[in-house]
Design a protein that fits this description.
Shape: globular
Radius of gyration: 16 Å
Number of helices: 8
Strand content: 15-25%
Strand order of the largest sheet: 3-2-1-4-5-7-6
Distance between the termini: 27 Å
Largest sheet: 7 strands, mixed
Number of domains: 1
Helix content: 25-40%
Length: 231
């Protein structure tokens, strides 16, 4: 999806997203929250600061801001996106509690080694696959040595996920990718694969089974997954 397409959907994104994931029985906030819990959980394992500077790559309308600030309250977040309208909507909702940056032609407007970590929440399936290596190289460039990059994506092996993407207006040009393909794209970018976890196995109807998900992270059937890289 181009920046123009994101601009077109920015104002209606919340409603479209909520309708699209209704089959899960959850609100969008559920998906944003678990991602930030996962991100926070890796910081102490990697000796990364809880008061550091972190990047939300492809931040959209700012869905990750509230859970990020709730789980990592002492950190500073920078939201970057190709869509100026999405950034405007985000700032309208969240004010100056975070910093904002516009991405132009896949070039991040930051100095080398500026961030302790970064995350991208279901962004890469909107980026043409032939650009993934360049984008990952840029993310590697702006991370400090040992910095964490967590890339969350939809799992193309999950049939409900595939259906949701196919019926989603803002995913009309999306192309899903496997964790293996993402890892292959990271070769020669300066990033090292750290771990891959599969997430979101049970809809709200079976929420009582969700404690089992911690033991299923290895199973490539979850609705989403993350690949963690180190710079």
């Amino acid at each position: 999806m181009s920046n123009a397409e994101f601009d077109r959907h920015a104002a209606s994104y919340k409603t479209l997203h909520k309708n699209n994931i209704s089959i899960s029985g959850e609100e969008p906030a559920y998906f944003s929250d678990y991602k930030m819990r996962d991100f926070k959980a890796l910081l102490p394992d990697l000796d990364l600061p809880s008061n550091g500077r972190y990047l939300d790559f492809g931040s959209g309308i700012g869905s990750s801001i509230i859970p990020f600030q709730m789980h990592i309250p002492d950190a500073r977040l920078v939201c970057a996106d190709v869509s100026l309208e999405s950034l405007r909507c985000s700032k309208e909702s969240h004010g100056n509690s975070v910093d904002y940056a516009l991405i132009i032609e896949n070039k991040l407007p930051f100095d080398d080694a500026e961030f302790d970590g970064a995350f991208a929440c279901c962004v890469f399936h909107h980026i043409p696959h032939e650009h993934h290596k360049k984008v990952l190289s840029e993310l590697s460039r702006v991370l400090k040595p040992g910095g964490l990059l967590m890339v969350y994506e939809h799992n193309p092996f999950n049939p409900l996920t595939v259906h949701a993407v196919r019926t989603c207006p803002f995913d009309e040009n999306a192309v899903l990718l496997t964790a293996r393909k993402l890892i292959e794209s990271s070769n020669t970018t300066g990033l090292k694969h750290y771990r891959t976890d599969y997430r979101v196995f049970f809809p709200a109807t079976f929420a009582n089974l969700r404690p089992l998900e911690e033991k299923l992270r290895w199973l490539p059937l979850g609705a989403q997954y993350f690949v963690a890289f180190l710079a």
